[in-house]
């Protein structure tokens, strides 16, 4: 009669280790692909929000103020500050691919009725992680007259659900850069002054 013996603890440990390695091989590419899809989805949402802001500007003659809480309604006492996207006023989805509410900030002068010719005191800046400007100023020859071309920003905290780099600081400087795992995953888009004016002129909402 033949004896049957079970797995030893060492053999079981080896089997479990092999299974773990195989799972890792398959799960890591899946996780990477999922992150890429979530990034792409959020980028598409931001582009749709940008279009909604243009539409709001054409109809209302101004940009909305941020929402102060999660209800998605703009708060006229919160203009010029960073807050939540007023998604309810814009008629767009307020949450990114990770279930976090989008952040929003606009130049306060543009949340009032647009002036003609347009003027702004915006000091909003967009940089990369090396502090290189991604948007030029209107007058680089005279610091007193320097005015940013950025009039509004919308961004997602990304995969880690928290602000990265200088986006953690509530000042006038914002950062947009390439995705780097565990270092930077914020996704930001902005409204250039020139593009807003162009849309308003085309729609007949602003005389050139």
Q: Strands, helices and their partners?
A:
Layout: H1 9-60, E1 83-84, H2 87-90, E2 103-106, E3 125-127, E4 150-156, E5 173-175, E6 187-192, H3 193-202
Parallel strand pairs: 3-5
Antiparallel strand pairs: 1-2, 2-4, 4-6
3D architecture notes:
The chain has 208 residues and is of the alpha+beta class. It has one domain. Helices cover 32% and strands 12% of the residues. It contains 3 helices and 6 strands, in the order αβαβββββα. Strands 1-2-4-6 form a 4-stranded antiparallel β-sheet. It is elongated and about 80 Å long. Mean pLDDT is 85; it is low at 140-146.
Overall domain count: 1
| Mean residue pLDDT | 85
Q: What Rg is obtained from the alpha carbons, in whole angstroms?
A: 24 Å
The unreliable regions are: 140-146
Class computed from helices, strands and strand pairing: alpha+beta
């Amino acid at each position: 009669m033949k004896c049957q013996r079970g797995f030893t603890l060492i053999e079981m440990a080896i089997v479990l280790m092999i299974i773990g390695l195989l799972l890792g091989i398959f799960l890591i590419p899946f996780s990477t692909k999922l992150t890429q899809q979530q990034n792409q989805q959020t980028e598409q949402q931001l582009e749709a929000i940008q279009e909604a802001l243009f539409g709001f500007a054409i109809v209302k003659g101004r940009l909305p103020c941020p929402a102060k809480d999660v209800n998605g309604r703009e708060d006229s006492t919160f203009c010029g500050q960073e807050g939540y996207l007023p998604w309810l006023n814009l008629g767009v989805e307020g949450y990114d691919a990770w279930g976090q509410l989008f952040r929003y900030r606009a130049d306060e002068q543009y949340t009032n009725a647009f002036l003609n010719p347009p003027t702004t005191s915006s000091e909003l800046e967009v940089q990369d992680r090396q502090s290189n400007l991604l948007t030029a100023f209107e007058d680089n020859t005279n610091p007193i007259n320097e005015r940013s071309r950025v009039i509004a920003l919308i961004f997602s905290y990304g995969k880690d659900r928290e602000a990265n780099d200088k986006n953690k600081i509530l000042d006038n400087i914002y950062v947009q850069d390439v995705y780097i795992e565990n270092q930077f995953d914020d996704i930001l888009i902005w409204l250039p002054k020139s593009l807003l004016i162009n849309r308003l002129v085309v729609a007949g909402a602003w005389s050139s």
